[in-house]
Structure formats: structure tokens, C-alpha cells
Write a structure and sequence with these properties.
Layout lengths: L4 E4 L4 E2 L6 E2 L2 E3 L7 E4 L7 E2 L3 H4 L2 H5 L7 E6 L8 E8 L2 E7 L6 H4 L5 H11 L4
Parallel strand pairs: 1-5
Antiparallel strand pairs: 1-4, 2-3, 5-6, 7-8, 8-9
Length: 129
């Protein structure tokens, strides 16, 4: 199992299908150094790596920034798919997060998975299943 980074959004999000409040966000797209990112901050808040792996903690944390655009996901609910956010940075700061729903996910998932998996996910997001 790979190491993942954790993300704390500044706004509250709910599953677009079941309505569960989502608070545990993570990503495999980031550095995978058990970093803890907070929306609105340029650098990670902390890391869960032990001190002996980090050295100077402040220097270590300030050596990482987020890309202009990245995806995070949550498994906080019992739905069959992760709930995903597309996040945007401006001037190095994580500013916005967009929840994927049945009306917004089309452009992201198309081509990212098999045609049948894509159709099934879209039906689920549109509450057609």
C-alpha cells in the first residue's frame, strides 16, 4: 500500500448521492509523503513521517507545493465509488474545490476508465442505479 497525503478542505462537502458529510480527503497524485495539506496554505501543515525521516521539519515542509490543479477523494460514505474533488491553486495557494456530481463529472471521467465502468459510475452519480 502506498503512502498518501491528507487534505483538509475549508468548505464542507457531502456525497452527491447519499448526502453523507465528507471530511477525510486524500490523494495519490501528490508526493505521497504523508503530508497534511490545508486549503488556503501554500505549504503542508505537517507530515506524519517520523522526525528521523524529515530532518529540519520546516525546511522539509516548505520544499513541497501543490500543482495548479489536482484531484482528491473521500471514502467517508458507504457508496461504491470514491467521492472526488477537483482542486485549483492560484499563486501557489489551494483556493477552490469542485465536487463531481452527475452534471459536472462527465468531462473528468470520460476516457479515464473503461466505457462500461464510466457509464456505470455516471448512472450512479445521476442516481439512476
Amino acid at each position: 500500500m502506498g503512502m498518501i497525503d491528507s487534505f483538509r478542505t475549508s468548505e464542507k462537502f457531502s456525497c452527491p448521492v447519499c448526502g453523507t458529510i465528507l471530511s477525510d480527503w486524500q490523494s495519490h497524485e501528490s508526493e505521497g509523503l504523508l503530508l497534511i495539506w490545508v486549503q488556503g496554505e501554500k505549504y503542508p501543515l505537517d507530515t506524519e513521517l517520523p522526525d528521523e525521516c524529515v530532518g529540519d521539519r520546516r525546511e522539509f515542509l516548505q520544499s513541497y507545493t501543490l500543482p495548479d490543479e489536482f484531484m482528491i477523494y473521500s471514502y467517508d460514505c458507504d457508496c461504491p465509488y470514491p467521492i472526488e474533488l477537483l482542486c485549483h491553486c492560484e499563486d501557489g495557494l489551494w483556493k477552490r474545490s469542485q465536487l463531481f456530481t452527475g452534471s459536472t463529472a462527465d468531462k473528468v471521467f470520460a476516457g479515464a476508465e473503461t466505457k462500461s465502468a464510466y457509464k456505470k459510475r455516471m448512472k450512479w452519480l445521476r442516481k439512476e442505479l
